[in-house]
Amino acid sequence: xxxxxxxxxxxxxxxxxxxxxxxxxxxxxxxxxxxxxxxxxxxxxxxxxxxxxxxxxxxxxxxxxxxxxxxxxxxxxxxxxxxxxxxxxxxxxxxxxxxxxxxxxxxxxxxxxxxxxxxxxxxxxxxxxxxxxxxxxxxxxxxxxxxxxxxxxxxxxxxxxxxxxxxxxxxxxxxxxxxxxxxxxxxx
Length: 188
Fold this sequence. Notes:
Elements: E1 2-3, E2 12-15, E3 18-28, E4 36-43, E5 49-55, E6 59-62, E7 65-76, E8 79-84, E9 90-94, E10 109-115, E11 121-125, E12 129-137, E13 150-155, E14 160-164, E15 172-176, E16 181-186
Antiparallel strand pairs: 1-6, 2-3, 2-6, 3-4, 4-5, 7-8, 7-10, 8-9, 10-11, 12-13, 12-15, 13-14, 15-16
Protein name: Elongation factor P
GO molecular function, one term: translation elongation factor activity
Pathway: Protein biosynthesis; polypeptide chain elongation
């Protein structure tokens, strides 16, 4: 058993007969009244996100997890295939477990958290950013910009990302996997 002082991002807990991963948390100590922890929890079975508030010192049941590095191989419909980099064992995960499945490029290494009690995969942590090539982008028209004008661009995985007007087809861009937003153009 853990308490609210052990709460951190990425912690997996049992809550309401389901397993949740803590996405965000905030310890709040108001001037009047007891302290509490405001959390954002993501269900690892359904993918739903809910907000919950725990009072300070509340006992929570944590889930023991192991983290392993897996390489993304390919997708087959809603099923995504990964290979363990150490044992070369392959697993198949459903699309709803993944945070940003449309940004996954074949050969990308991800961290998979596995429940030690049931040996079932719980969640997949993508790298913080990923570099992808732009396969389609409308040409930017000079002169019709205000400030920070963007246009949609399609990357090699099929995802659509809003990028600045100077990005063209064939450019490699760095994308933040948490928000799915453009970070910078990458020179080679």
